Amino acid sequence: MGAEPGGGGNVAFNHVGICVSDLDRSRRFYEGVLGFRYWWEMDVPDAGCSRLLQLAEPVGSTAVYLVNGSFVIELLYFADAGIHPAPRRVMNDLGLTHLSVAVDDIGTTLAEVSSHGGEILEDTDMGGRAIMIRDPDGQLIELTTFGFQAMRPPRPDSDTPQGTQPSRGPVTEP
């Protein structure tokens, strides 16, 4: 993704961070189920980590970066600060609700979910076009087909002439 102008100048997407309870298990899930690849790993120094993440020292943070195309996931583990179990998220909880990933074959992908510690939410199946799963720590992930993804209008950063795509328009202050 290229840099786009924003309120503070150019903005570029960096990564999505996911707190995990077991780095190895989460790596196996994201690599084995969704095709992410290991990029790099860092033991984060406590002083900077504590300040930036607002956690009391000692933190003992390890960050593992996984990539799939231009999408980057940062798996965060806190050996010393510990992990706080969260309630099961639902779609109308404030904040990040889910990740959405297009896959070649939903059935083939689903066949790997349980054996990699995830959960298939069978009652969300949209006839093979989309379904929700959870990673080993409960993070919601929407699986879609590439055909379902293709139903969207062209992105505003594509070569499509302006004015040819549906839009809700700019967000304005009340």
Report a brief summary of the structure.
This protein has helices at 23-32, 46-53, 106-113, 146-149; strands at 4-6, 9-11, 16-19, 37-44, 61-68, 71-78, 99-103, 119-121, 130-134, 140-145.
Radius of gyration: 18 Å
User: Element order, helices and strands?
Assistant: EEEHEHEEEHEEEH
Task: Indicate the overall shape.
Answer: globular
| Low-pLDDT segments, ≥5 res | 160-169
Could you name the CATH class? Answer: Alpha Beta
Hey, roughly how much beta strand do the residues contain? 25-35%
CATH architecture: Roll
Helix content: 10-25%
How many discrete structural domains? 1
The helix tally amounts to 4
From the 3D structure, determine the CATH topology: 2,3-Dihydroxybiphenyl 1,2-Dioxygenase, domain 1
Tally of extended strands? 10
Q: Let me know the average pLDDT.
A: 85
SS-derived structural category: alpha+beta
Amino- and carboxy-terminal Cα gap: 31 Å
- CATH homologous superfamily designation: 2,3-Dihydroxybiphenyl 1,2-Dioxygenase, domain 1
Strand neighbour order, sheet with most strands: 3-6-5-4
